[in-house]
Amino acid sequence: MAISLTVNGKKRQVEGDPAKPLLWVLREDLDLVGTKFGCGAGLCGACTVHVDGQAVRSCQTLLGDVKGAAVTTIEGAAATDVGKRIAASWIAQDVPQCGYCQAGQIMSATALLSQTPKPTDEDIDAAMIGNLCRCSTYVRIRAAIKAAAA
Amino acid sequence: MSRATLSRRGFISASLIAGGGLLFDLAVPIAKAADGTPVIINAFIRILPDNRVIIGAKNAEIGQGAKTMLPMLIAEELDVDWAQVSIEQTHADAKIFGGQSAGGSRTTPREWLPMRQAGAAARAMLVAAAAAQWGVAAEMLTTGSGKVTDPKTGKSIPYATLAGAAAKLPAPDPATLKLKDPANFHIIGQSVGGVDTPAIVAGRPLFGIDVKLPGMLHAVLETCPAFGGTFKSANLDAVRALPGIAHVLTIKGDGTPESGYDGVAILAKSWWTANQARETLKVEWDDSAVTGFSTQGYAAQAATRAKGKADGNIVRTGDVDGAFASADKVVTADYSYPFLAHATLEPQNCTALFKDGAIEIWAPTQNPESGRGLVAQALGLPPEKIRINFSRIGGGFGRRLMNDYMVQAARIAAQVPGVPVKLLFTRADDMGRDFYRPAGWHGFRAALNKDGALTAFHDHFITFGKDGKPVRSAELSPGELPAGLIDHVLFEQSFLSTNMPTGWLRAPGSNALAFVYQAFMDEIAAAAGKDLPTLMLELLSKTAQVSQGANRPPFVTARARGVIEKALAMGDWANRTALPKGQGKGFAFYYSHAGYFAEVVEVAVADGVPKVRTVWVAGDVGGHIINPINALHQVQGSVIEGLGQALAGQAITQVAGAIEQANFDTHPLQRIPDTPTIHVEFVKTDYPPTGLGEPALPPVIPALINAIHAATGKRIRSLPVTAEMLV
Question: pTM for the complete prediction?
Fold first, then answer.
């Protein structure tokens, strides 16, 4: 049976197993591949999206959990003012190296700035600790969040 | 588009492309390799009617910046503005593009000259076309911003207008090309952001995992947890009966990790569905030959071997026995380090379509030609029937120099002709099917004379080997310092056997050897009553150069001294003892991948937990930093990765032939709170530029270990660092 949800402001209907993780619904059923698979266990943060404004790991969020919810992915992240500032800051600081984790980093950073417009280093650590970057772009992630907050 | 056959003399051709643009393909064979075969450099330079220039990037982008840097070299000598340039990734074909592997920090030194020559060749032809049109000598004309100008008349023609005529001219001999005076560089040396950064930030499909083809099926591959186990039987029909499963296939490997072992592939329209079906799949493997291997076993064997005679010498110089017999002081210590996984954040994956006796592959690979050879062998196909397309790569670190995932995807695709198949590993697959940085054990002895000078050095290296040779990435070079700097040196090795596939992890060899050699040298310096940089500077003042073997540039001691002195100044080394209790600074120098790096680490240790506060890095990679912003990023990433290898708790362990770790909870990476302040400076010397993906990593580990000693008095001789070692 079909499950309705809103993704990046658009109403979507998904036919499928309610136990299917949102990550794979996005990537396979809705053709939104910006959200990345890294660990499948909520350990790396590459799959971070927003559900009703909260940053969640989409590999640990099931389709059945997001019935009627508003989901924002990296493809829709720049629709808000905070999202625009984060995107511009990420480009200005040239944050990515391989780039694979960056969708998740940006979604976590956007959620942080939406709730805490002027984060301290401790706020940044707490909000971003769940997002691994194998290339270790952390120096620039921190700088880009601060620049976007300024 | 069609492409003319490449001749040895090179060609240039122009043709109309869809939409009326002018395609200006340039292929210039530049030089001959040592074996006499032509090294063919082919820069696709396409000049569009609006004078925009599209430059082909020929190497895989793994986060090292090659997709931006190589086109910068072409654009510089083509003499266009970077704002005019768009970049396209080429496909893989060594016959057209020359070497396309991304490894060993070799891209920069290999391409520094030929990429600039490719740009200069195209520029020369455009100038010649303008000269012919105006009836003036080419030498009288100048270029800039994608235009040819006659300074006498002030007239200019955009490249787009000249491209058609230029393409009919013969390609110049690269040796005759005059390259720019570096004083006139306007792109090289300027910070250029990653060409894909805006697409990454927008979440566009770029990576291998994002490849999507019509009718594509997704595949998972089950293999024997113990490396080398072979397939006996499985409940394949039970899995076939599950809803949504398209195919369940047995895959016959060739028994090597490089090509791939036996497996069972499950294919479905959804990867998640295919992977769920693994819960039902029950496979019986024959792993009796490989379940005897374990981490505990290696450690016990290494301890036994350390007490006995070595299997053989790597190098022996001078009179080692005499030097130890006459030593005033002998320093001994045993060091070791574990296996490590690459853990690229994008799990290994590959998409393949087998059709009409040919296969097309979309692969995140660092080493496509090696993959082509393996696929050709596995499928019995001629190499020209294999097309390999690159995708952007979600982290390489050496893992994707291996192509096992490509061969396995090809084997699966060959069983379902006409259907594109994307194979994707889970994280557990990825961590359990790696080519691991090998563990190693070093029994060190050093002799000091009465003046505190290092006179002799002995390492009994216990490593992994097969058929009397070290396995991949388990070698110790006879040129490892202090060899070459002192007279009496003995490096011996003994081999353990393993079923674990081993491979190149960022700064292979060096990432482990820097730790043990520079940490032990810190012990030697302490025994001699001096600090490590003083000892290193003494040793490095005796000799001008140390050979690194044929086809490698020699190690130049003046360059080493230059970065050491720079790092000491940056890190205020002279005042290091002013730090409060529980804090300390450590130093290390290491030379790898033709790069010279000296680093100072400041650490604070409280309750057995080291916290790195600041790292100072001085590096010498030659006379030009091609893209300064990316150079800084490479060093920052190398430093944090190195610290992670020491501090995050990384160690791959094995029980009954299989890997115990399956995810980032048990093989952790550094996270954002672990990030120190990192200061980076480059010492420019008059040498051609060399690569930066790797050489900044190795010295940070011993610098940290030496800093922990300065802070706590404790010597760390085994990685990873644990709280028990520090309390």
Answer: 0.95
